[in-house]
Design goal:
With about 300 residues, the protein is mostly beta strands. The protein has 1 helix and 20 strands. It has a 16-stranded mixed β-sheet that branches. It is globular and about 50 Å long.
């Protein structure tokens, strides 16, 4: 569903943030892989409000289940704790959110939580997706050249068709899968129910031989997960992203806040803003119009707001 953006020419190197110990598949549409990324100047940022992240507890990842006990078994990203704090550079792309990066093969986990936003649908088709991912991001100033390599993604999306908003959970492993897919359906179950206001938690983890992509609806006690074997050589970037669809308007929502954003890079676990790695903050533009504005990170370095502009 979400192809990687082109290379981003951003400025400088960042250091930063304090962290304590931390089928019956359904095809959707593919995102636009072609829009060129350009450099953007720093602009006023929206303050992030304090909002507690989801609180999964350490244990093993269930594959797949749809019960409240499965939520209790979710496992956070792990590793040695990171240290330090600082700022992120701003750039522009067809994505909106944050990207953290290290040399190839270093990213082993990324996760975050958000409240599924309410989407306003008009008479035309529109779409938006909210997700975390590993890989396939390209940036000289982040020290990575990963464009065209595999990307693993998991999150939620919404399609506007006939004036109605359809929310759903999805995963995608590019380039093996050309579109996104719903998760395997447990015996006697159906696709995950996702509604506005639901607390969603998503994670992509590399185990050494496979990627495990998980989406949990914390509000409904429903966990879906899938494992896909892979060598995992190109794992240079961790992403926390809002994106649209190829050839369609961006579905309109007020804002969405990512919380509890964590990643494990090179065996070190930390929030999005940890000083251990470089990162950039990305606003989404449609031509010369900025549509999605991304706030600075919270004081804890693990939360940020993505706001729709020009509503």
């Amino acid at each position: 569903m979400h192809l990687p953006p082109p290379s981003l020419p951003v400025l400088g190197i960042s250091l930063c943030l304090l962290f304590g110990a931390c089928e019956a598949p359904r095809a959707q549409k593919s995102a636009d892989p072609t829009a060129a990324a350009t450099l953007a100047s720093a602009t006023a940022s929206m303050p992030a409000t304090n909002e507690p992240p989801a609180t999964p507890r350490a244990s093993s990842i269930p594959l797949p289940e749809a019960t409240a006990s499965a939520v209790d078994a979710l496992e956070h990203c792990g590793g040695a704790p990171s240290v330090g704090e600082g700022d992120s550079f701003r750039a522009t792309s067809t994505w909106a959110g944050y990207v953290a990066a290290e040399p190839p093969g270093s990213v082993s986990c990324v996760e975050a939580s958000w409240l599924e936003p309410t989407v306003s649908c008009g008479h035309t088709s529109a779409a938006a997706s909210f997700w975390v991912g590993i890989g396939a991001y390209d940036s000289v100033d982040l020290g990575i050249e990963d464009l065209g390599h595999p990307i693993q993604q998991a999150g939620t999306g919404v399609d506007c068709e006939g004036g109605q908003a359809e929310h759903y959970a999805w995963h995608q492993f590019q380039p093996r899968e050309s579109t996104d897919h719903s998760f395997p359906i447990p015996a006697g179950g159906g696709d995950m129910v996702v509604e506005p206001g639901d607390r969603i938690w998503a994670q992509v983890r590399y185990t050494g031989t496979a990627f495990v992509m998980t989406v949990a609806n914390m509000s409904r006690g429903d966990v879906r997960s899938i494992r896909q074997k892979a060598a995992g050589r190109h794992r240079s970037s961790a992403e926390w992203i809002v994106s649209g669809e190829a050839g369609e308007p961006m579905a309109r929502f007020s804002s969405v806040k990512f919380t509890g954003g964590l990643a494990t890079l090179g065996g070190i676990v930390g929030p999005i803003g940890a000083a251990t790695w470089n990162r950039i903050r990305i606003d989404e533009w449609a031509g010369d119009v900025r549509r999605l504005r991304v706030s600075r990170l919270s004081a804890e370095g693990d939360s940020f707001l993505v706001a729709w502009l020009h509503r």
